[in-house]
């Protein structure tokens, strides 16, 4: 049995073709064990968590809280109460911007992000800056898609209250020098929020070793269900922060005049959470751990290097983002052919990629591009997927050459 066989989605043909799924950076496919865990949660232990006094509620609560312990171990947090269930990376970052930002960012303060960021790690900070009359600064890029750290001393100042930075770029695959940036930010007393959405499926995360203050990620990018993600935060910071939303379970007592809030993590988990999905995330973590990061890294690097090398053989192709340290993503453009057209033709050949701006419009602006084609890998990808993509690419070139010739013939 191969890794691909663990994923039922690959049993089907698309347009009669084998599916080469090269869009894991958008969302990863789910192994049968994760699907089974979600089905089992709904079939056998469906009850609300932390409230009702009956068997099903108790079973659901146990499974839900067991996932929190798995998450703690997975990212090596000190304590499981530092791991908050949210809807995803987007909500995790918004939570920090709203709650921590509300309390700690003041007029004249600065928030530093980078030119690589996904909109989820730009807009919440922009909103906060507008509200607080603070300033958003940006670490610029180098033409190869790495961060230009030559001006970091000017950018990271005593006014910097928050550094919000991605670990891995979703559009280019650049891996940022995270530990170094965290240490530099801490030297200026800034807290560091890490967007780990694209890192967690590929790299072993150790939040204690990184010493980041917050770390956000999404279950659906790491073979788990949609609708759930994690905000890790250091206990002392989370304890001092006001709740993000009010509602059930985030309180201890409520009168019409006042509310005494619950402890962390529950203070930040108002309302009924995505219970079955959290349980599915627990199974996804187990799955990743069984496969192991050494295998994942080795497999994905082989594919990354092979595909990069093959794409470079096409004179029509320009790779966007060639950082020395990059993982799992290749972005490219082709002269005279819009990325949407490439992605649409790829699709007809069973090759799923993303053609677009990748929720990173400022990054596209930096490269002066409307969009790129993005190939991204997961642990189920094989050389066959690359070959299928290369075949589709040759078809794209053939189709467009033919179109150009017939256009030329019409003109003369
Ligand atoms: N940050 C990065 C780097 C991402 O790639 C994504 C999703 O593509 C997000 C944040 C947002 O994640 P979600 O949509 O799961 O909240």
Name a few traits of the molecule.
412 residues, alpha/beta, Aspartate Aminotransferase, domain 1, Aspartate Aminotransferase, domain 2, 2 domains, 7-stranded mixed β-sheet, 4-stranded antiparallel β-sheet, globular, binds pyridoxal-5'-phosphate
Describe this structure in words.
- The chain is an alpha/beta fold.
- The protein has two domains: 146 residues, Aspartate Aminotransferase, domain 1, CATH 3.90.1150.10; 258 residues, Type I PLP-dependent aspartate aminotransferase-like (Major domain) (Aspartate Aminotransferase, domain 2, 3-Layer(aba) Sandwich).
- The protein is built from 13 helices and 17 strands.
- The strands form five sheets. The protein has a seven-stranded mixed beta sheet, with helices on both faces. A four-stranded antiparallel beta sheet has the order 13-14-17-16, covered by helices on one side.
- Strand 1 and strand 2 form a beta hairpin.
- Helix 1 packs antiparallel against helix 9, helix 2 crosses helix 9 and helix 3 packs parallel to helix 4.
- The longest helix has 29 residues.
- The protein is globular, with a radius of gyration of 23 Å.
- The model has no long low-confidence stretch (mean pLDDT 96).
């Amino acid at each position: 049995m191969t890794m691909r066989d663990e994923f039922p989605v690959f049993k089907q043909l698309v347009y009669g073709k084998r599916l080469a799924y090269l869009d894991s950076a958008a969302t990863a496919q789910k192994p049968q064990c994760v699907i089974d865990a979600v089905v089992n949660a709904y079939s056998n232990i469906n009850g609300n968590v932390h409230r009702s006094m009956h068997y099903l509620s108790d079973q659901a609560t146990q499974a839900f809280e067991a996932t929190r312990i798995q998450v703690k171990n997975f990212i090596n947090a000190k304590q499981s109460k530092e791991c908050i269930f949210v809807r995803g990376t987007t909500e995790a970052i918004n939570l920090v911007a709203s709650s921590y930002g509300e309390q700690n960012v003041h007029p004249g303060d600065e928030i530093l992000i980078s030119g690589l960021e996904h909109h989820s790690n730009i807009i919440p900070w922009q909103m906060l800056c507008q509200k607080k009359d603070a300033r958003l600064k940006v670490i610029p890029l180098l033409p190869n898609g790495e961060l230009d750290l030559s001006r970091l001393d000017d950018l990271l100042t005593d006014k910097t209250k928050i550094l919000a930075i991605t670990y891995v770029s979703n559009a280019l695959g650049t891996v940022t020098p995270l530990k170094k940036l965290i240490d530099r930010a801490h030297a200026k007393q800034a807290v560091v929020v890490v967007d780990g959405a694209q890192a967690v499926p590929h790299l072993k995360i150790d939040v204690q070793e990184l010493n980041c203050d917050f770390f956000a990620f999404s279950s659906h990018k790491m073979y788990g269900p949609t609708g759930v993600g994690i905000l890790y935060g250091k206990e002392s910071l989370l304890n001092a922060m006001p709740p993000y939303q009010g509602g059930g379970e985030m309180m201890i007592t409520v009168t019409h005049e006042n509310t005494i809030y619950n402890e962390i993590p529950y203070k930040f988990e108002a309302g009924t959470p995505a219970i079955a999905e959290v349980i599915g995330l627990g199974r996804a973590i187990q799955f990743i751990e069984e496969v192991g990061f050494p295998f994942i890294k080795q497999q994905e690097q082989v594919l990354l290097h092979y595909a990069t090398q093959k794409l470079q053989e096409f004179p029509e192709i320009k790779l966007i983002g060639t950082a020395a340290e990059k993982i799992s993503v290749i972005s490219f453009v082709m002269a005279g052919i819009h990325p949407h057209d490439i992605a649409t033709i790829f699709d007809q050949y069973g090759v799923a990629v993303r053609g677009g701006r990748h929720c990173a419009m400022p990054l596209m602006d930096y490269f002066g591009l409307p969009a790129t084609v993005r190939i991204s890998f997961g642990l189920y990808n094989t050389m066959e997927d690359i070959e299928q993509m290369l075949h589709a690419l040759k078809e794209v070139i053939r189709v467009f050459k033919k179109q150009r010739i017939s256009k030329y013939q019409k003109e003369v």
